[in-house]
Amino acid sequence: MRAGPSQEEIRRQNLGALLRQVHLRGALSRAELTSSLGLNRSTIGALTADLSAAGLVREELPAGSAPREGIPGQALRRAGRPSLVVRPQSERVYAYAFALGAERITAARVGLGGQILDRREAVRELDELSSVQHMVRQMQRPVPRDAYCIGAGAATTATDRADEPLGAALAEVLGMEQPVSIANRADLGALAEHTRGCATDAESVIYLHGDVGVAGGIIAGGRLVTGHGGYAGEVGHMVVNPNGRPCACGSRGCWETEIGEQALLRAAGYDRGDGAGGGRAAVLAVVDAAARGDAMAQAAVRHVGDWLGFGVANLVNIFNPETVIFGGTLREVFIAGAAQVRSRINRNALLASRERVRLRTPELGEDAPLIGAAELAFQRLLADPLEAGAA
Amino acid sequence: MRAGPSQEEIRRQNLGALLRQVHLRGALSRAELTSSLGLNRSTIGALTADLSAAGLVREELPAGSAPREGIPGQALRRAGRPSLVVRPQSERVYAYAFALGAERITAARVGLGGQILDRREAVRELDELSSVQHMVRQMQRPVPRDAYCIGAGAATTATDRADEPLGAALAEVLGMEQPVSIANRADLGALAEHTRGCATDAESVIYLHGDVGVAGGIIAGGRLVTGHGGYAGEVGHMVVNPNGRPCACGSRGCWETEIGEQALLRAAGYDRGDGAGGGRAAVLAVVDAAARGDAMAQAAVRHVGDWLGFGVANLVNIFNPETVIFGGTLREVFIAGAAQVRSRINRNALLASRERVRLRTPELGEDAPLIGAAELAFQRLLADPLEAGAA
Questions:
Q1: Which sign does the torsion angle of CA A81, A86, A90, A93 carry?
Q2: Is A231 in CB contact (< 8 Å) with chain B?
Q3: Is a pLDDT exceeding 80 seen at residue B80?
Q4: Is the Cβ of B201 closer than 8 Å to some Cβ of chain A?
Q5: Do B312 and B340 have their domain in common?
Q6: Spatial separation of the C-alpha atoms in residues B381 and B150, rounded to whole Å
Q7: B355 → chain A, closest CA residue
Q8: Can you tell me the mean pLDDT for B169-194?
Q9: Alpha-carbon gap: B91 to the closest alpha carbon of chain A (Å)
Q10: Residue B248 sits in the same domain as residue B139
Q11: What is the pLDDT of residue B65?
Q12: Rounded-to-integer distance, Cα B324 and Cα B346, Å
């Protein structure tokens, strides 16, 4: 309902749009920027100069341009100096990203442009903050003196999608004034695959993440569905089996009671009954056993694959997504049980929606939530490059 | 990813924003427009002049200002001429709206500003287009000669949310060049309640519409969730009961097999078994019988209310909506079975999401989809007032 933007807002938008282009696509010539942003050459020049002065981009000769000038035929066609390219200052401007999983903590230093400059991993222990602190210290050592950190983001398993105490605690570990941005692993997996993975061309995406529980990151019309209080995406607590098992949430027959790690282990006879002994390794063991011909493991994969397809069919009817991505341990379950997943979707989902949906595994692999956490950290910079990025 | 808008785009945005203000809020003073749009007085003056010249708004003395000037005390405090108000030209600029329901066709002529200038209703017959044609002729007769129609919209029961043949056929009936905009009744109910009804302050809304089937109009982050091909919102085909009845869609246990009109009539013993004898009147008869103490009708309302709450709980977990609205015959089922609905939501939905959700009936009543169809027609005008509204 607000009116059009002011000149200053437009300049900020344009700076952000240019920086976002090189952040996502890498080095680009001024001509490419002119055409993709729909701005004239002099505006691109002025914006580039501002971003260069702030240390966010630099202009340089395109890779391979010098040798080519040595070839007589090329030199004739490319008279004068070659066009400069605008490149993000990936070594100088970076964010910290964390993925606090059920079993492991992953941490990375990610440069503007999305390069992972450093990456560490640790088994998750009770005192997760001291693990994070240790990893951050290791990563801080080799950082060049003129480099600066523009923020940090973290992916968590929490239902509470804006965990303020954790954000403040992580900021203290990092010595930052602003709290670290926190989001759910599935939301950040969706963000990462939509930004840099298998769904960059899709406006409507569901990213499912399985571990102990199941969560969904949902993008509709190009934007993350967060809900009224930030709690959207709890697809693991959609009830699919009214006569099913009790769920830890207090309900019964939730989707995660049928497709979570414990459901697969139970069906395969691996469940020790004490709720322990799960985890990614156990899921892989069942999938491997099924591949080797173990009949009980095969039946388990088929059973869980059927319930996986059952819930996906519901989501396909509700969202009509272009792409559904199976992340976390659901990646392995989907690959092993793809026939059951597809068969159930064919039975339960409406033709118009199911014939358009692509079923995928994360192009960014297990690091999708980690990369999403870095993108979360970069969002403030991309919204207002000179304010947020001031060195 | 595109860069900031041009001067001409900003002017268009500003014209649209001003017109949208008076369309939604009615007559507003220049001072109110200045403050709500965040533009200065001279810009508001120029925009108002452009919209006046195009015949979309007019400036006039506020209602009641003339008599007040006659009161000596008032005249002292309100020296000079009173501030003019900008009012939409509701009698002069209008849209046609249609709601093609399972049983009835409703048609209206709706003025800019949302006033229903004329409204007609007919029982739906096999040849729906000739009914529409008849109603349009009746409504066209009293239209002033200087008035003009800016477009038309129609709400349908179709799953196919962009029914092009119908849009072209309606345009022919109306003698329009552009096809009539078509959308699903639930999507338009959501749009109407979000624009003018009980959810104007909500960014996250689910509007459920029940008749023969059940459809959902979903607003997330303030925007309608349409899906990849326009088929989103088929919540009636979310499977809630894997051991339930076969559904016409080919699946089994879809939500609409448990909460649709036939489900209520069957549970109440009103089902004649031939699929006929349903409709709104039959639903009301069951609800009335329950209110009068008929035990079987009461049990039916409780049963359907429980399944209604079951599906709503799933949607609450998936979307974390601020408001859920029960439209069509689900309005009556919700009112009669509210205790069961709430109890099931309390059992199945996560605390963080269920404690924030408001359960509502449509403030616009049965006309919500019709009013949404008019809003759909006005969208083109509001996006580009001078281009779309040129007399």
A1: positive
A2: yes
A3: no
A4: no
A5: yes
A6: 7
A7: A229
A8: 93
A9: 24
A10: no
A11: 60
A12: 15
Residue A70, in any domain of the structure: no
Domain assignment present for residue A72? The answer is: no
Provide the domain count of chain B.
3
- Find residue A106's DSSP bridge partners: A99, A121
Do B373 and B357 belong to one domain? no
Q: What does the pLDDT average to over B169-189?
A: 92
Q: Tell me, what DSSP letter sits at residue A359?
A: E
DSSP string covering B298-351: HHHHHHHHHHHHHHHHHHHHHH--SEEEEEETHHHHHHHTHHHHHHHHHHHS-H
B2 within some domain = no
pLDDT, tens digit, 9 for 90 and up, residues A300-320: 999 999 999 999 999 999 999
In this structure, what CATH number is given to the domain that contains residue A114? 3.30.420.40
Domain range holding A12? 7-64+82-88
Q: How confident is the model at residue A9 (pLDDT cuts 50, 70, 90)?
A: confident
Residues B224 and B296 in one domain: yes
pLDDT above 90 (res B215): yes
Chain B CB within 8 Å of residue A245 CB: no
Q: Where residue A31 sits, what CATH number does that domain have?
A: 1.10.10.10
Q: Give the pTM.
A: 0.91
Q: Cβ of B320 under 8 Å from any chain A Cβ?
A: yes
Residues A214 and A154 in one domain: no
- Please identify among residues 91-110 of chain B the ones whose CB lies closer than 8 Å to any CB of chain A: none
Question: In the predicted model, what is the mean pLDDT of residues B251-260?
Answer: 97
**Most confident segment among A317-326, B53-62, B132-141:** A317-326
Six-digit token pair at A146? 């003129």
- The per-residue pLDDT for B171 is 93
Q: Are residues B232 and B145 in the same domain?
A: no
Confidence tier at B5 by pLDDT (50, 70, 90): confident
**Is residue A69 predicted with pLDDT exceeding 70?**
no
Do A174 and A113 lie in one domain? The reply is yes
- pLDDT exceeds cutoff 80 at B79: no
Say if residue B35 is in the same domain as residue B14: yes
Residue B1 counted as domain residue? no
Please judge whether B239 and A314 are an interchain contact, meaning their C-beta atoms are less than 8 angstroms apart. yes
Give the mean pLDDT of B51-56.
Answer: 96
Name the phi and psi angles at B360, rounded to 5: -135, 160
Residue A347 contacts B where some CB pair is shorter than 8 Å: yes
Beta bridge partners of B219: B205, B224
CB contacts, 8 Å: A221 with chain B:
223, 225-226
Q: Residues B140, B144, B150, B154: what is their CA dihedral angle, to the nearest 10 degrees? A: -30
Of B1, B237, B319, the CB nearest to A317: B237
| Residue of B348, B354, B358, B359 to mutate, testing the A interface (most A Cβ within 10 Å of its Cβ) | B348
Task: Return the closest-CA partner of residue B347 out of A217, A332, A250.
Answer: A250
Chain B neighbors of A242, CB-CB under 8 A: 240-241, 310
Across chain B, mean pLDDT equals 90
